[in-house]
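User: Now give one protein:

AI:
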Amino acid sequence: MENLISLLTTLKNRIDGLMAQLDITGKIQRIHRLEEQSGAADFWNDPETAQKIMQEIARLKEEVGRWNSLAQRINDALELAQFDDRSLLDDLTNEVNALTEIVDRMALQALLSGPYDRDNAILAIHAGAGGTDSQDWAQMLERMYLRWAEENGYKVEILERSEGEEAGIKSVMMSVKGEYAYGYLQSEQGVHRLVRLSPFDASNRRHTSFAKVELWPDIQGQLDIEINEKDLRIDTYRAGGAGGQHVQKNDTAVRITHIPTGIVVQCQNQRSQMQNRERALQILKARLFEMERKKQEAQLATLKGENINAEWGNQIRSYVLHPYQLVKDHRTDYEVGNTGAVLDGRLNDFMDSYLRAKVAIKSAT
């Protein structure tokens, strides 16, 4: 029983530390202030602001309740263990194992404390240098992220997809929906490098291919960004597809070019041109917002280079299939020899190591 008490005490200390790190006490005080504000007679005179406040109250209550509930569960188990009742040993052992797993998961989520980490994400993949091999590599990455999303309970909607000339894809843009989608997928933005024997080379030589992954928070209605219609060039075209009843006969797909920045957004998955236009505008706002946010971060931290080319020297992760098997993240040095598992969507360990390294860097500065 002493061992269980020791384990539970460690869990209690971890949770107390995490709750302090997340300022749960401050968030409780924030809830009280917002609830007082919501009780004012003129609160609903501005329905949009009132709705945002009510949403913040609900979000904060959910977060605080989740942490308080876990802390109470650990305290209850610790109290039972201190009774030293041997008949409870098996049940308490199972409870400690379950609590350890929950705390580990919550500790990882505690690393996702950015303002948009809990939001849905928009992920785009672009084939880079390497011709047909890179287009095939881009499709392999698309499959990898689809498998990751499926395995972790996220829903994916393909917003736009451009097929390669001979094989693979030139690009794909997808919406990944679910809690912490943006937070977890932050680790994936950058250039991914593949080394393998090319299936498109008659001499079966080794080739190096590149693809670039981009990411934005899909926060849609939360963005207060004004876009001047004069700054937009809007083109329509016929949505592509594999054939059958879902191929559009009309020009329902929309391409929006933001002339001042050169950002191009395409959407073809909605049923009507109007819906595709609205979705494309949402994505454009998200990209403009993210661009500005990164610019401000770069100025504050004197960082360099968000706009990187998909070629040698810029890769964040390498996937080597020949002459040996290895996937290595160059930012964290985390590596795995089972390349098949990684390409099947087993990315959580890479995401975990990236988040921990990111927090360590912030702590050091």
